Amino acid sequence: MGNKDKAKERREKRLQDIRLQRTIPYSDHQRWWSKETVAVVTGGNRGIGFEICRQLATHGLTVILTSRDSSAGVESVKALQEGGLSVVYHQLDIVDNSSINQFVEWLQENYGGLDILVNNAGVNFNLGSDNSVENARKVIETNYYGTKSMTEAIIPLMKPSVVGARIVNVSSRLGRLNGRRNRISHVALREQLSDVESLSEELIDRTLSTFLQQVEDGTWTTGGWPQVYTDYSVSKLAVNAYTRLMARKLSERPEGQKIYINCYCPGWVKTALTGYAGNNTVEEGADTGVWLALLSDQTFIGKFFAERREINF
Ligand SMILES: NC(=O)c1ccc[n+]([C@@H]2O[C@H](COP(=O)([O-])OP(=O)(O)OC[C@H]3O[C@@H](n4cnc5c(N)ncnc54)[C@H](OP(=O)(O)O)[C@@H]3O)[C@@H](O)[C@H]2O)c1
Q1: Could you say which EC number(s) this protein's record lists (predicted)?
Q2: 15 found inside a domain
């Protein structure tokens, strides 16, 4: 058996283990949440986001399913409510500041805040062997700046608690800094982005604007950017860097007001974003995000996960 087949076998075994773990109910001492625990999911109308909503609500939390398109979101909520789940709808477009502000106001007024934020909304315009950067600006604006705007707007609303509030960013292994086949080839930049102490919003912004400038003037192909799904990979690299940067900032919060922020890769999932060409089901894709959101003894902050295990950035 070749290395590729062995890796495939290991992955399948790991997924099987997780499938089994998902069937084991949380015990009473693990269940720190109740129906009053509020989880907000962005891009919840379909794909992994919808499944995250379904799994969290099945565990007994109150879920606020949000979507940029109201009619799609309302339909999705209806499907979950018909299954007896506690899911509520609100419109939210993560690249529209007025939509974010209206949502935050509504959340504060109706729920007094939240316990869990899942930054799931995202876009990708590359399929198969494409590597077009035609939509690079939109990809960066949504995947990175949208996630950042949401996080900044929501942090003041996160409820203080003994177990800590949680932010889960749905990211991708494509955004790994040290991926073997898909990484920034500029060593100094990679080192700067790797070192959590030298990470800053300015560094991330500068990296993204250099990339977008090169897209505009057509020089990006020789810019040393990730080789596969370049714009999407750069956007997720920024999400990963931001997760670590925010973890550093949030770790200064006192006991009782902790916010644990982490990110994860759902694997290659059969959703619209991959043209339904992935290996994993949405149940598998949502699993690690839900697991992270519900961990009873949160000790992770600023880490990257896949298949319920920590992986390297
Ligand atoms: N599928 C994979 O293999 C894979 C792998 C790694 C990471 N991910 C990540 O997983 C997340 C979910 O993706 P998916 O695979 O479930 O794709 P999907 O089915 O295309 O879902 C993406 C969701 O994001 C929403 N969205 C896009 N832009 C938005 C905006 N400005 N404001 C609010 N919502 C917005 C979409 O809304 P509309 O319905 O209105 O378009 C949709 O609900 C993304 O962050 C993606 O990058 C996916």
Answers
A1: 1.1.1.-
A2: no
